[in-house]
Write a structure and sequence with these properties.
The chain has about 230 residues and is of the alpha+beta class. About 25% of the residues lie in helices and about 35% in strands. The protein is built from six helices and 13 strands. A six-stranded antiparallel beta sheet has the order 8-13-12-11-9-10, with helices on one face. Strands 4-5-3-7-6 form a five-stranded antiparallel beta sheet. A hairpin with a 2-residue loop joins strand 4 and strand 5. The radius of gyration is 19 Å and the shape is globular.
Length: about 230
């Protein structure tokens, strides 16, 4: 994977990596000795983090000021429209009708100058202290479903109240992401802490099977990201 090789090169030159998603972090860890790196986490359970050796990453925190409500996908889509890659920015946080984003210091001026509107709404970026969210923890809505299996197509069908046939169609249309990669197999069996998202329908974390019912079905717990 190109991004992993690039990260190894940066670390070998005592430079921090860019932001890496959980899947990329796991891949990079496989190629490193545990004592040879540190991980910069903007807040306790951040998903996108930075590996470094001696030089601490230069990260800034911005609040997105908007007069109208925004959605995560709208912010993300607008960022990508600026022709930047996901490694240049960290997590997007939505908390109490406020919106925050972590940016690498070198890219921050470009994004601040060009991110002026999200979904026909004028916005501004205001830099705030990193300490503002140092104790932030992600918020979820717990959901329990009854399912005949922990296959991903079955679980998602129950979560969004549709048929497995519709889920298979969504997979074909590349509308389901599992652990930061496109889902390709409908019979994948979910594992604890797997993260998956359905286009326009939300992002979830799979917790696991709580218990078996008398009818041999399963009570399954998931967390839906707020």
């Amino acid at each position: 994977m190109y991004k992993i090789e690039k990260s190894l090169t940066k670390l070998n030159h005592n430079q921090p990596t860019f932001f890496l998603d959980p899947k990329e972090q796991l891949e990079l860890k496989k190629k490193l000795k545990e004592t040879s790196y540190k991980i910069y986490k903007p807040y306790p359970d951040s998903e996108k983090n930075i590996f470094y050796t001696t030089t601490t990453p230069k990260v800034l925190l911005y609040e997105i000021i908007s007069k109208t409500p925004l959605e995560h996908r709208e912010i993300l889509g607008t960022l990508f429209s600026l022709n930047i890659t996901s490694e240049l920015f960290g997590d997007i946080i939505m908390k109490d009708n406020h919106y925050y984003i972590y940016l690498l210091e070198p890219i921050a001026p470009y994004i601040k100058s060009n991110l002026l509107k999200i979904k026909n709404t004028n916005i501004t970026l205001e830099e705030i202290p990193l300490e503002t969210l140092k104790d932030y923890h992600k918020e979820y809505n717990p959901i329990e479903i009854i399912s005949s299996s922990n296959r991903i197509d079955t679980v998602i069908a129950r979560l969004i109240n549709t048929s497995r046939k519709n889920i298979i169609e969504k997979i074909k249309k590349k509308e389901i992401i599992l652990n930061y990669s496109l889902l390709k197999k409908s019979d994948y069996k979910l594992k604890e802490n797997d993260v998956f998202s359905i286009k326009r329908l939300g992002k979830y974390k799979y917790i696991g099977i709580i218990k078996e019912t008398k009818s041999k079905n399963y009570i399954i717990k998931c967390l839906k990201y707020k």
